[in-house]
Automatic annotation (TrEMBL):
It comes from Microbacterium bandirmense. This is ECF transporter S component. Keywords: Membrane, Transmembrane, Transmembrane helix. InterPro entries: ABC_thiamin-permease_prd. The chain crosses the membrane at residues 21-45, 65-82, 89-108, 138-161, 167-190. The keyword Ribonucleoprotein does not apply.
Length: 212
């Protein structure tokens, strides 16, 4: 095989594949709808988490990280469904913008900033697998990645000066929450949507429907 042929093959099978870079109109529309829908989920959880938080905080400092998962699902869903470069960041950020515009208690700028950081954490996992692997383990890793980035961001902005014990417990708890509540549930939700035929214009939808 010539050098040019090897290079061409590598390009088609790696990050040089044009289909993962080119966003269609339907990609933008569906990603935006996902972001808005997740934004309403965020709004509900902005209030809903307060009760569990009051119960968990006295048990052990940092264990409230177990509640972070619902705020991380948008990026995982975006990546799994759209399967384009930037989808995880885009959907997570749109969801954060919706939450911010509705008056999230953390303020507009910090809410959107958190969305960008969390989306980046999920995006880097999909990048690590060159936007080719969409299995449950990868989805859970993406949720964990979003949680890790978001957790470090929270420690810097909201828990500055916390001790080592709090930091370790919080990061472990938020990563677990991200893997399960964003990764596992996000993967199940994406497959559920695909099985209805709603995602037949996407590789994620056709892949699931082909197995049914």
């Amino acid at each position: 095989m010539s050098t040019s042929t090897r290079t061409s093959t590598t390009t088609r099978t790696g990050l040089g594949r044009p289909e993962i870079w080119r966003w269609r109109v339907v990609d933008i529309v569906v990603a935006s709808v996902l972001g808005v829908a997740c934004g309403f989920l965020f709004l509900a959880w902005n209030v809903g988490y307060l009760g569990p938080k009051a119960l968990l905080e006295p048990l052990m400092p940092g264990v409230q990280g177990l509640l972070d998962g619902p705020w991380l699902i948008a990026g995982v869903l975006g990546g799994l469904i759209i399967r384009k470069v930037g989808a995880a960041i885009y959907v997570e950020t749109i969801a954060a913008v919706v939450s911010a515009l509705a008056g999230a208690q953390w303020g507009g700028f910090l809410t959107i900033e958190a969305g960008l950081v969390q989306g980046l954490g999920a995006e880097l996992i999909f990048l690590l697998f060159a936007y080719r692997v969409w299995t449950l383990p990868v989805a859970m890793l993406a949720g964990a990645g979003a949680a890790l980035f978001g957790g470090v961001n929270n420690l810097l902005l909201w828990f500055a000066g916390s001790g080592a014990a709090f930091t370790v417990v919080y990061l472990i708890c938020t990563v677990i929450s991200g893997a399960v509540l964003a990764g596992l549930l996000g993967w199940l939700l994406a497959r559920g949507l695909a099985s209805t035929g709603a995602l037949d214009r996407f590789g994620s939808g056709r892949e699931v429907r082909a197995r049914v």
